[in-house]
Amino acid sequence: MVNYIEAATAPAKNTGAIRIYGQDAFAGMRKACQLTARCLDELAAIVGPGVPTDTIDRFVFEFGMDHGAYPATLNYRGYMKSSCTSINHVVCHGIPNDKPLREGDIVNIDVTYVLEGWHGDSSRMYPVGEIKRSAERLLEVTYESLMRGIAAVHPGARTGAIGEAIQVYAEGERCSVVRDFCGHGVGSLFHDSPNILHYGRASDGPELREGMIFTIEPMINLGKPHVKVLGDGWTAVTRDRSLSAQYEHTVGVTATGCEIFTLSPGGLDRPGLPPLQG
Question: At which positions is a divalent metal cation 2 bound (predicted)?
Answer without folding.
Answer: 121, 184, 217, 248
